Amino acid sequence: MKRVTFAILASLCLATAIVAQVAQPLEDPAIEQRMRNLTKQLRCLVCQNETLADSQAPLAEDLRREIREQIKAGKTDQEIMAYVSQRYTDFVLYNPPVKATTYLLWFGPFVLLLLGIAFLFRYVKRRRELIEVKPLTAEEHRRAERLLRQM
């Protein structure tokens, strides 16, 4: 009987904790939609392969709360994005602007690809130059013909 009571109480406590986490009070739907659109454009600083909208990290939750407060304060999307990128650098933006500080980010992969292709062509060219092409002697030619006939 004690185990059953304990199991029921533990289940209720767990269910209450889950509901408390999931059931957050909803704001104005327009504010929530605007906040969601903004956070889809931002990278989570903790889990860098997720958007701020999708991340469950505590820092992401704090940033979403901060963005929500700025929306309520009447700031425009551009002002909010400028604030976030100024505070956390352009790294936080999923589509950082093309400027002198982000050239490597935008063009680095293409430069590396071109360097890799140039290296590959140079390597292949050098390997070809190392290969000596000598015609077969009469004896080697007869031996090759014999081997081909045996197959």
Structural account:
With 151 residues, the protein is mainly alpha-helical. The protein has a domain at 111-151. 66% of the residues lie in helices and 0% in strands. It has six helices and no strands. It has helices spanning 2-22, 29-39, 58-72, 77-88, 103-130, 138-150. Helix 2 (29-39) packs across helix 3.
Structural topology:
Elements: H1 2-22, H2 29-39, H3 58-72, H4 77-88, H5 103-130, H6 138-150
Low-confidence segments, given as residue ranges, are 20-25
Largest sheet: none
Q: What Rg is obtained from the alpha carbons, in whole angstroms? A: 32 Å
Rough outline: elongated
Specify the helix fraction band. Answer: 55-70%
Strand content: under 5%
Oligomer: single chain
Q: Mean pLDDT across all residues, rounded?
A: 83
Cα(first) to Cα(last) distance is 84 Å
Label the structural class: mainly alpha
Count, helices:
6
Number of strands: 0
The topology string of helices and strands comes to HHHHHH
Summarize the entry for a quick read.
The protein is mainly α.
Index terms:
mainly alpha
